[in-house]
Amino acid sequence: MRSPLPRFFLILLLTWSAAIPPRVLAQSAGEYRQQGLALREQERLPAAIAALQKAVELDPTNLSGRVLLGWTQHLAGQRSAAITTLLDTLRINDRYVPALNALGIVYLVEGNLTWAVITHNLARLLKPNNEIAYYNLSLAYHRLQLYDWAIRDARQAALIEPYNPHPLIAEAIAQWDQGNLSRSRQIYERATALKSQYGDRAYLDELARAGFSPGQIQVAAAILKTP
């Protein structure tokens, strides 16, 4: 005769499972966000986007989660989708600075300089110590050949975040194109003192990750080549 214990434990297990609310058994929005971030760190961007989209579906009012999705879409080159996600976030709260910062960067990389300037200026007004806004405004103004404004905002970004070499390089390229070659080289040397890799021409392509356009990277290379 078989022991009744296995059947008893099976009944107990089914009873316990039925007593647990479905939302406890299901993966939460927070867990999907963590999964998406982990996948993004592994550069598995399509899978990361899928996880972050699920998080937004489960928790649509979580603004941070929406920005994570939009930024990941941007990293994957899905800029139209990123813009849609971030605009939807701002429809919920049009003063949410992280969404404005991210949207401004997407516009900048896309080459929509007018909207990059508008978006980052709004972010700057809402958060005056917003290094991201000042830095990206400098890059946008440089591409618009508004060199005085580019220099001004690069300096402000460097004041807010003095250990970041990128605002210094942003000012250096603006100084260079304004004709201040000696001043440009001095500022660029300050940037390489913070991050020596930027003294290597082969490393300059990494500036694209920081929002620099191909033309701006060429200016940085010109500064580097000049004795």
Question: In a few lines, what is going on in this structure?
Answer:
With 227 residues, the protein is mainly α.
Gross morphology: globular
Q: Helix coverage percent of residues?
A: over 70%
Which H/E pattern describes the elements? Answer: HHHHHHHHHHHHH
* Oligomeric form: single chain
What is the overall number of helices? 13
What share of the residues does DSSP label as strand, in percent? under 5%
Radius of gyration: 24 Å
Mean pLDDT: 90
Summarize the main sheet.
none
Class of secondary structure makeup: mainly alpha
| Distance from first to last alpha carbon | 93 Å
In total, the number of strands is: 0
**Stretches with pLDDT under 50, minimum 5 residues:** 9-15, 17-26
Supply database-style keywords.
single chain; 227 residues; mainly alpha; 0% strand
Overall description:
By secondary structure, the chain is mainly alpha-helical. Helix content is 74%, strand content 0%. It is built from 13 helices and no strands. Helix 8 packs antiparallel against helix 9, helix 11 packs antiparallel against helix 12 and helix 11 crosses helix 13. The longest helix has 15 residues. It is globular and about 60 Å long. The N and C termini lie far apart (93 Å). 38% of the residues are buried. About 7% of the residues have low confidence.
List the helices and strands and how they pair.
Elements: H1 5-19, H2 22-25, H3 29-41, H4 45-58, H5 63-75, H6 79-92, H7 97-110, H8 113-126, H9 131-143, H10 147-160, H11 165-177, H12 181-194, H13 214-225
